[in-house]
Amino acid sequence: VYGPSSTPSHPLATAPVSPPPFSVDGFVKEFLHELNTNQGVALSRSSINDQYLALASTVKNYLMARWLETGRKTRESQAKTVGYLSAEYLLGRQLGNALLATDLGDIAQRGLELCGLDLATLRAQEVEPGLGNGGLGRLAACFIDSLATMNVPCIGYGIRYEYGIFRQTFVDGRQVEQPDTWLALGSPWEFPHPEASVTVHFGGHTEKYTDAAGTERTRWVPEWNVLGVPYNYMVPGYLNGRVNTLRLWSAQATQAFDLQIFNSGDYADAVRAQTFAENISKVLYPEDSTPQGKELRLQQQYFFVACSLRDFIDNELEEGFDLHRLPERIHFQLNDTHPVIAVPELMRILVDDHGFDWDEAWEVTQQCFAYTCHTLLPEALEIWSTELLGRLLPRHLEIIYQINDEFLARVREAFPGDELRARRMSIIAEYPSRGVRMAYLATVAGTKVNGVAELHSQLLRDKVLPDFSELYPDKFTNVTNGVTPRRFVRMANPKLSELITDAIGSGWVTDLERLRELEPYADDPEFREQFRAAKAWNKSRLTDLLAQRDGIELPDGHLLDVMVKRLHEYKRQSLKLLHIVSLYEQVHSGAIAAADLTPRTVVFGAKAAPGYKMAKDTIHLINKVAAIVNADPVLEGRLKVAFPANYNVTLAEKLIPAADLSEQISLAGMEASGTGNMKFALNGALTIGTDDGANVEIRELVGDKHFFLFGMSEPEVAQLGAQGYHPGSYYESNPRLKAALDLIWSGHFSDGDRYLFDSVVTNLVHNDRFMVLADFDSYLATQAKVEEKYADVDAWTRSAVLNVARSGFFSSDRSMRDYLKRIWHTQPVI
Ligand code: CR1
């Protein structure tokens, strides 16, 4: 029950909520009030953390009226809402974005100054919520930002992990993971609502019964349950008065937590039961692009999806809403396969809880979901063993079997006699063991299936799900990823933003295609000069940050060559590493003079999944090579390798604007899209990249002359694979490559230990699944072209300006428009 129990008589009680005055005085008053009443301290006795928390509350207070108003408007309009279901949201820090969305930056700065405080210091106090691994989680955060900015009703649903992505440290060059205690100093951006908790059931069995009308029905008799407590976060639109909601679920033990093994009546056991329940939202699985297949992971997936569906149906719809019309009010977007268990869950709700017959329920369910696939690696498509699924969610497994039976009947009808095809397409895999192919389930159930860049969507149709695209040609579509220009240009790159706004006005922040108007400025020497000045400012900001954060010294005047992304073999950090080792080897063998090298600093940022040995060995090797290169007097001032630990959104915001060269060097056909690639181009870095993922579209848009393409194309990769790839032949026939690999093999970077990195080199020479050696030559040749161009300052800057001017397509606002048009068929609410 919501609202007062009798009609309010005080005029204020029915007036709309009003924000604090939009003035320095108004701000100071609100800030001090928050400091005194929320933190319970006087300014003179306040810690930086107190000040940060009070500042966050103050900014929230400015957003509050908009948030409440957005809720009212959305309910009244009965508009269709986008329900974004994602196991990850890599949000980044909230304060800067909230200041930007409210235009409070200057007021806050001046107000705090008048209180003797420094805004930048308080901003640095914030620990980012790292509730995601990489691109997929950051994409979700960009999408909800865009939807709010575009006035589209959206609820993001996810998990409030108590520990987000681990904090990476290096010990003797090896990655060591530390828990991410992002909640330790308080979490001012969230609003817990324990009273609105939802119970989620697990385990048990199903039974048949006959209802009052004499119909045979099934019910689930679960064995144990947990509570999902919602935590709401504001998702402010940029300067538009809209604030959407992100609702993250935290697991708690129910009072009657009745898991049998914990039922001994023992107090210690009871507490253990509590821990067991709370484990569900305890920690983010740090695997990126490869699933884990662990029971707790499936618990997490069902937990947040069950909470979210219940929440939407019970709380967001008016009482008595006819669920047959559910598709008019919601479109759930499945962010990869992680939330796909929502499909049988909605069927269960409709059939078991609301008495729908099967066909009616399937009709509704099929209209409520759409599925985004984010990968091409076959091993990354989730398959849950039927044994596990049946044990944890017995009713859901039954429902999946029934969906599959009906689906296969359809396949057999469409392709009579093609039994192999039916087996290939079955949602239930029989080999090597029985499991549920979640991507197939999502494809069968969803209105649409999309890939995340043109090439990826094409390969998805032709190679990953060819049978499905034949059966449902209209289901498949593409939406190329995008990034929010608010966070990744306007906020991260204030100098460039100012320069752009001076030239073309401020409209680009919400209409990024307008960057096109910058094109003529590429030929304006004065503009180019200012553009370089902005880049120089970003570099010096990064230099200060890395000195203080990591004790890393960035030399002046170097080409800043940046490769930041998760560590994965398919992304080929090892190719970048071989380039560095080769430069070092060439100088020391006398093949080139150090003085002839273009002064270059290579910056890596990368976390490896804790159980991914090859990735961790690669990190170790990069750090060892860095140590030798950086200590080498011959290379002093010519080549430097920097690997700051714990790359995250906060660091990205400083690193990307400073970069000259963006490394996007995955094997063609492996990177679904990439989104870092877009951020670099938008911030005026030139890309060296393969024809992979969204690189293809970046190159097409910015033009070949302003993009360094290298390596095999996807069809060439496929052909080489088919004819038989032998990395050893590249090693044997390319002296420069052989010398680089031999140098690592010799123990040169491991204090003479020949075995330390043997696995990395052996793998490259004998297996090399991602064809690093095949692309080595082309990569080095193209790096030489990079250097040549970099020597021509004006030509380089001109290309950099054109990269900015021609990358407006990569705004996540455009991605959202594509989803609205091609998938959700819903409208903004003004
Ligand atoms: C892809 O690897 C893509 C992001 C966002 C990643 C990357 O190329 O840009 O998704 N996939 O679409 C992923 O994390 C679980 O899969």
UniProtKB/TrEMBL annotation:
<dbReference type="InterPro" id="IPR035090">
    <property type="entry name" value="Pyridoxal_P_attach_site"/>
</dbReference>
<protein>
    <recommendedName>
        <fullName>Alpha-1,4 glucan phosphorylase</fullName>
        <ecNumber>2.4.1.1</ecNumber>
    </recommendedName>
</protein>
<comment type="function">
    <text>Allosteric enzyme that catalyzes the rate-limiting step in glycogen catabolism, the phosphorolytic cleavage of glycogen to produce glucose-1-phosphate, and plays a central role in maintaining cellular and organismal glucose homeostasis.</text>
</comment>
<keyword id="KW-0328">Glycosyltransferase</keyword>
<keyword id="KW-0663">Pyridoxal phosphate</keyword>
<comment type="function">
    <text>Phosphorylase is an important allosteric enzyme in carbohydrate metabolism. Enzymes from different sources differ in their regulatory mechanisms and in their natural substrates. However, all known phosphorylases share catalytic and structural properties.</text>
</comment>
<keyword id="KW-0808">Transferase</keyword>
<dbReference type="Pfam" id="PF00343">
    <property type="entry name" value="Phosphorylase"/>
</dbReference>
<dbReference type="InterPro" id="IPR000811">
    <property type="entry name" value="Glyco_trans_35"/>
</dbReference>
<comment type="similarity">
    <text>Belongs to the glycogen phosphorylase family.</text>
</comment>
<dbReference type="InterPro" id="IPR011833">
    <property type="entry name" value="Glycg_phsphrylas"/>
</dbReference>
<keyword id="KW-0119">Carbohydrate metabolism</keyword>
